[in-house]
Design goal:
single chain; 228 residues; alpha/beta; TIM Barrel; 8-stranded parallel sheet; 19% strand; binds D-xylitol-5-phosphate; binds zinc ion
Length: 228
């Protein structure tokens, strides 16, 4: 299993100060920044777009983990690649194998990484399992897409564990990212179930000392043994 990575989710910070959110991630030595792109169709909120990602790109070399919660990713993939996204994550719910393959080619042609996300109620589809060797990050959402600050839906944890077993059985390097309600209280369980990339919005930016919160999450995650 790949090492633990911490990905602060900037929508939990003051949205008028995303630059500040990125600076906190840098100071806290986060591994990547999680950028939630929501279009008001796929999920009931609107966040920000490629122009904002591009502006933030000028501020840091930190890896940009761009989570596209949009109905029509085909229309936007190039814009986020141009903006400097390092990982572009698409939702399985709006794809089929043909659409995924097209998006995959677009992202890989630019040398970036492809992620695939599933909502809490969505099983990882067969076409996605068959392509996990091409997917750098499988994102298991543990809240409904839309907003930071929700409680983790622990009913999703068996799906996480199943995904980890599949990845390990096949000897794949796919990262498994857990997105939604990750906090110091549950991060140990998330690691035991097989997550290795921890998205944390409120769990970082909602704390008194967000810089320190990144290290604190990492310490707990790294000390948690995998359950077999
Ligand atoms: C939800 C987003 C999550 C969210 C995480 O639509 O995909 O990334 O911001 O925030 P917390 O950790 O507060 O649930
Ligand atoms: Zn997200």
């Amino acid at each position: 299993m790949n090492g633990i990575r911490i990905a602060p989710s900037v929508i939990a910070w003051d949205l008028g100060d995303l630059r500040g959110a990125v600076e906190i991630a840098v100071r806290g030595r986060a591994d990547q920044v999680h950028l939630d792109i929501i279009d008001g169709h796929f999920a009931p909120n609107i966040t920000f777009g490629p122009g904002t990602v591009k502006a933030l790109r000028q501020r840091t070399d930190l890896k940009f983990d761009t989570h596209l919660m949009v109905e029509n990713p085909q229309a936007y993939v190039d814009k986020f690649l141009d903006a400097g996204s390092d990982i572009v994550t698409f939702h399985a719910e709006v794809l089929n194998e043909r659409r995924f393959d097209e998006l995959f080619r677009a992202v890989r042609a630019r040398g970036r990484e492809v992620g695939l996300a599933v909502k809490p109620e969505t099983e990882v589809p067969g076409w996605a399992l068959a392509r996990l060797d091409k997917i750098s990050t499988l994102v298991i959402m543990t809240v409904s897409p839309g907003f930071s600050g929700q409680r983790m839906d622990t009913a999703v944890l068996p799906k996480l564990q199943k995904a980890r077993e599949y990845v390990d059985e096949k000897g794949l390097e796919t990262d498994i990212e857990v997105d939604g309600g990750v906090e110091p209280e549950n991060v140990r369980e998330v690691v035991r179930r097989g997550g290795n990339v921890m998205v944390a919005g409120a769990g970082v930016y909602g704390t008194k000392d967000p810089v320190r919160a990144i290290a604190a999450l990492r310490e707990i995650a790294e000390s948690a043994g995998r359950r077999r």
